[in-house]
Amino acid sequence: MSRFRARVRVMPRPSILDPQGQAVSHALGELGFGGVADVRVGRTVELLLDAATADLARDGALKMCERLLANPVTEDYVLETVEPVA
Amino acid sequence: MKIAVVRFPGSNCDADALAAAQSAGADATFVWHRSTDLGGADVVVLPGGFCYGDYLRPGAIARFSPVMRAVAAHAAAGRPVLGICNGFQVLCEAQLLPGALVRNDGLSFVCRMVTVRVESDATPFTARYHPGQLLRMPVAHGDGRYVADEATLDRLEREERVVFRYVGGNPNGAMRDIAGITNEARNVVGLMPHPERAAETLLGSNDGAAMFALAAVAAGV
After folding, report:
1. What is the 3-state secondary structure of B184-215?
2. Which end of chain B has the lower number of beta carbons within 10 A, N or C?
3. Catalytic annotation on B92?
4. Beta strands B27-32 and A2-12: pairing type?
5. Are B49 and B13 within 8 A, CB to CB?
6. Domain ranges within chain B, ordered by starting residue
7. pTM of the predicted model, to two decimals?
């Protein structure tokens, strides 16, 4: 068994209105930041996984995304990294 | 008739739902979310609240509570299930109803009286109403904006599965002003407004009381 750190990024679907992103965009404008064309707010989930291989850790993380971490109706997910933890 | 009101950690409209069911003449009891059976209930109510602190997404963690297996079996058997507010979110996460409920378009938590139109009386919970009837009930939610893809929305409309629609103002930006829907078999209903908080005239409206008076179910229809 080795330990791996998997990082998952979950973002609202582009077709779904993201009022949180809009509020942040508005606040950035108020603070004087120019050139902010759009803001979207998602979340990052970090998992520490014990698995025999990185591939198995990856498979497990993807199953977790499908079952719980992202809602397939409103969100997209990307498994960004699976790295061994020293 | 026996009504089970499920309590999740963070449910906060459970007592109101129980009171509304009792006022309607039902033998209503609480069922803890760790329970694996519904105590022989005829009807299940998933009440409002913020189960598991709405962590991850509202309803996302509650849907894996042990009791939800029993709720899914109850629904699959064609028996009535009502999800109110957070309960509606749980039913969507559990895929017992299509679509999802996301952050209100105005970002603010809305807590006020709204008017909804009954679009369908073909569910156990709306059999005592008539299509076109206007009901006044309060909403209290931060994540009540109903969303689904266009094909799902078209299908809901075509199959007359939109049960309630906001009129005179949409409090959360819900697609097609949808306040409540039902499943294909029409035994599972979810809605964002709170009928249990509109079950006594003293509370400003008793328009929601009839939702808990499921005479047809009691008679075994």
Report:
1. CCCCEEEECCCHHHHCEHHHCECCCHHHHCCH
2. C
3. no
4. unpaired
5. yes
6. 2-218
7. 0.93
Please name the residue of chain A whose CA is at the shortest distance from the CA of residue B89. A71
Question: Residue B173 is nearest to which of A17, A20, A68, comparing CB atoms?
Answer: A17
Give the domain A2-84 fold. Answer: Mth169; Chain: A , (3.30.1280)
The amino acid sitting at B216 is: A
Q: How far apart are CA B166 and CA B178, in angstroms?
A: 6
CA gap B125, B212 in Å, rounded: 7
pLDDT digits (tens, 9 = 90+) for B169-213: 999 999 999 999 999 999 999 999 999 999 999 989 999 999 999
> Tokens for A61?
């993380």
B99/A73 touch (CB, cutoff 8 Å), yes or no: yes
Alpha helix segments (H runs only) across chain B:
14-23, 67-76, 86-93, 150-158, 215-218
Nearest to B100 among A17, A69, A73 (CB): A73
Q: In chain A, which residues have their Cβ closer than 8 Å to the Cβ of B99? A: 73
Topology of the domain comprising B2-218: Rossmann fold (3.40.50)
List of residues 6+ apart from B61 with CB closer than 8 A: A68, B51, B52, B55
* Complex-level ipTM: 0.85
Locate the domains of chain A by residue range.
2-84
What's the token pair of residue B146? 């109903």
